[in-house]
Design a protein that fits this description.
Strand content: 15-25%
Pfam family, one: Stealth_CR1
Protein name: Stealth family protein
GO molecular function: transferase activity, transferring phosphorus-containing groups
Number of helices: 13
Keywords: Exopolysaccharide synthesis, Transferase
Order of helices and strands: EHHEHEHHEEEEEHHEEHHHEEHEHH
Shape: globular
Family: Belongs to the stealth family.
Low-confidence stretches: 1-8, 188-194
Structural class: alpha/beta
Helix content: 25-40%
Strand order of the largest sheet: 3-2-1-4-10
Mean pLDDT: 90
């Protein structure tokens, strides 16, 4: 585990995870100060969206356990440091797991900090110093559920992407009708009070790079990315980068840079579509414990659910939280346990 140069795939692959602890008083004060300038509180700025409930350590444990071939794991955050990093450092994994501050990747765009917008953050992940050409982006509510291989994300220098082709929104009657109604009733005083959709942001990214009639609609899953694709595009379109990072909260005027990278890669024959591996998406605030058990057992039996997305844990019942952490302990294992196992192997 300590040898970061032992890549079974022959070339380095990094993981990049975005994380925030919304319980941190400093972060809460930053957010409240910005919201005061809007005069209203958008749905997208709910404090619960930024709440850390303990699942993040399992995200890191799953990457270390099930993707040991990763060269490095970068945790991107805003002036924070996960509590478990003390244990990471103590076990000599401080080069394997690194914390990167927003101020580093937003260099030159400091006027747009602090930001509370994952779309803005994704836009500059490729600017992480020493980041590998091939990297995997995932949110902090994701976990790997089984061993994965480099070829599940990159093959012969190409990204392995997941999704299905869908029509651009303006090609659909229901979307055109919704847009017309919105134009009649207006959008409100503040653009950022809306709750922008993920699919529309994907479609907008595809259209930006030439996919005018359709786009590859990606599910919630870890996203492989090639750093050089984003870097080359923004070298030529610096105004697009400036625009995309300028929003402190998610906006319907933004596009998703991970989706943009996917479509550029498809355009350049640097991506292949493979939907063999799936994401087990759990909306924990809406599930009963019985429903949770049924879904997790079925996913395990199928053998195709390599990724788990844990949504709404902060709003789940105490019983649902207990069931979730019990399942994570069995399926992934805690970070503490993983570190102790590594000590045993090294001794």
């Amino acid at each position: 585990m300590n040898n970061v140069n032992d890549w079974s795939c022959g070339f380095p692959i990094d993981a990049v995870v975005t994380w925030v602890d919304g319980e941190d008083p400093a972060h809460r004060e930053k957010l409240n100060r910005y919201l005061a300038t809007l005069g209203q509180k958008p749905k997208i700025a709910s404090a619960k969206r930024y709440q850390e409930t303990g699942e993040f350590a399992y995200c890191i444990a799953s990457l270390l356990r099930f993707a040991p071939w990763l060269r490095r794991i970068y945790i991107v955050t805003d002036g924070q440091r996960p509590a478990f990093m003390a244990d990471i450092d103590r076990h000599g994994l401080d080069d394997r797991v690194r914390v990167v501050d927003h101020s580093v990747i937003f260099r030159g765009f400091e006027a747009h900090l602090p930001t509370f917008n994952i779309r803005s953050i994704i836009s500059v992940l490729w600017r992480i110093p020493d980041l590998a050409e091939q990297f995997i982006f995932l949110n902090d509510d994701f976990v790997l559920l089984q061993p994965v291989e480099p070829e599940d994300f990159f093959r012969d220098g190409k990204m392995v992407v997941r999704g299905h082709w869908a029509a651009q929104p303006e090609s659909r009657f229901d979307k055109r009708l919704a847009s017309f109604i919105k134009s009649l009733i207006g959008k409100g005083t503040h653009e950022e009070l809306a709750r922008p959709g993920n699919r529309d942001a994907q479609a907008r990214a595809a259209k930006r790079v030439g996919f005018t009639t359709r786009y590859l609609r990606a599910p919630h899953n870890p996203h492989p990315m090639l750093k050089s694709i984003a870097e080359a595009y923004f070298d030529q379109h610096g105004d697009a980068l400036e625009h995309n990072v300028s929003y402190r909260l998610r906006s319907e005027k933004q596009f998703l840079v991970d989706a943009m990278t996917t479509h550029l890669a498809l355009q350049q024959d640097r991506a292949v579509v493979d939907n063999k591996l799936k994401t087990l998406r759990l909306k924990l605030s809406d599930l009963s414990v019985f429903g949770f058990v049924l879904r997790t057992v079925w996913a395990r039996l199928s053998g195709r659910s390599a990724f788990g997305c844990l949504q709404g844990l902060e709003s789940a019942s105490p019983q649902m939280r207990d069931a979730t952490f019990s399942w994570l302990e069995q399926r992934v294992g805690s970070l503490d346990r993983l570190l102790l196992e590594s000590v045993g192997r090294d001794s």
